Write the structure tokens for this entry.
Amino acid sequence: MAVNTSAMLKKPVKKRFILTNNWIGYLFVAPLILGLLVFHLYPVIRSFMMSLENTNGVTGTFIGFDNYRWILRDSMFWSSIYNTVYMAVLSLIFNVALSFLLAAMINSIAKARGVFKSIFFIPNVVSVIATSILFTFLFYPTKAGVVNSILTMLGIQPVEWFSGISTSRLTVCIMGAWRMIGYYIIIFMAGLQSVSKEMYEAADVDGVNEYQRLMHITIPSIRPIFAFVIIMDTIASMRRFSDVYMVGGTSGSPGGTLVTTVMYIYRNAFTGTQMGVASAAAFVLFLIILLLSYLNITFVNRPNDR
Amino acid sequence: MQSYKRKKKFRNMLIISILILVSLTMLIPFWWMITTSLDWAAVTRVPFPPRFWPKEFSWQAYRVTFANIPMVMYMVNTLTVITGMIIASASSALLAGYSLSKIRFRGSKLVLFASLCVLMIPFETTMIPQFLLFNQLGLTNTYWAFWLPGISYVMGTFFTKQYMDSLPDALRESARLDGANEMRVFWQIYLPLCGPVVATLVILLFLYGWNDFLWPLLILNDSKKFTVQIGVAMFTYQSGLKQMPAIRMALAVVSVLPILVLYLFLQRFIVESIATSGIKQ
């Protein structure tokens, strides 16, 4: 019996050996793994180590959790968190609401869907840098600005936009919405097209109105897409840097309202050479984004598979 | 029934008008950017009242831009960065994706899981140690700082794996049992079938590479090495953000034009890539 089985297995074993050719498999993923180790795993560990040191990046002394204590008492750190979250909430409202409404509209018309999708996406290929330059003129703080002159025509006082302490963050979010809405529209539309037609037909037979259709069929059907967009947008907001760098510089002007968490990290690391403090803040950012990503995975059920 | 149809038609018209209106709003900034760049009257200050047609039509702003800012050099630099990055990232992602999908060696699940974990690490957390690493290696101000990290392209690996999963395993099995080695199976059988995924990777990497800002800001401080974004940002920075509208707009137009042209030609493809990828770096 034993001889018999091994004889029977002989060919399959050889076949399996050829097909699960382990070492070639490892060779093919070697570049990826090398990259993961050198450019992701090692830097995260180093980042944590540096956050426990008083260091300029070259030499350092171990100081335990002092850097964390320092940033938690640093009002600049807290205001950077405040600014970041403030802009995250605003951009959630703009980006998610507008892109969903527009996607639903585009999806409900019979023709020219592709055209609208393509038009709304155009701003997304424009760099943040060029967008910032353009928008500082469109939202110019005096009457000469394009937006302000439209407001003046409507009888509204000119707004300071990027230059006003109370409006600078809002303006950055408006600019962000212009760039990002088209991107989220594409994602929402991919979801909307997967909602079953039968449900809409059944609803039509039952004579439900637009609002009921939206609330009871469309939104529940694409709930995972909503979660995905919300979390992606929040993560993007937590990582906000380039636009505030262009508009407000490293001082986050006006009045430090545009200092985001990443700007705080950048300032400490590269203008102040406080690498330890910067690393502590970077590690806090890591934990926040880790939590958001975890929520993404648990709530969203891999929207890519749609 | 008649009124229902009419109502539906009216609703359709209303939605289309709203969409057209919003589209125009989205496009106005581009129009203002182009007309202002061609308006020599807007060279020193913002035109008042705002206009959407040049008052003194002239290409002068572009001449000034090209005379003062080496945009062509920045573009060549950017293309150099992107080309190397595409080669490193795409080949690593394709090889790894093939291996994870078809060879399924012992531990491939673990590699997938580890990659997924790495996706959650924001670049902003690792940028300081990465910068110090390249600094120690003496590779700041070189493009190696962009090419080397390219080998860990996790998203690309996932796309490739997903795509390869949809190709039959039988191709590999029969080729392997006929004595073809793994590299040949990958190169001659599967890679030619991977056109769509390769195109997606190239598009996503190109968009990313052209517009990337923070990493080049850390790595490049020799102005001869600047990419387009850094060059534009530094010039804007040094000469004051709100000065000289016409020249600023000319600069913005030049920096945006290549990617806009690319988009106009490939828009259906790009939109599709974004929709299938869902995530854009």
About this structure: The two ends of chain B are 50 Å apart (CA to CA). The CA atoms of residues 115 and 121 of chain B lie 10 Å apart.
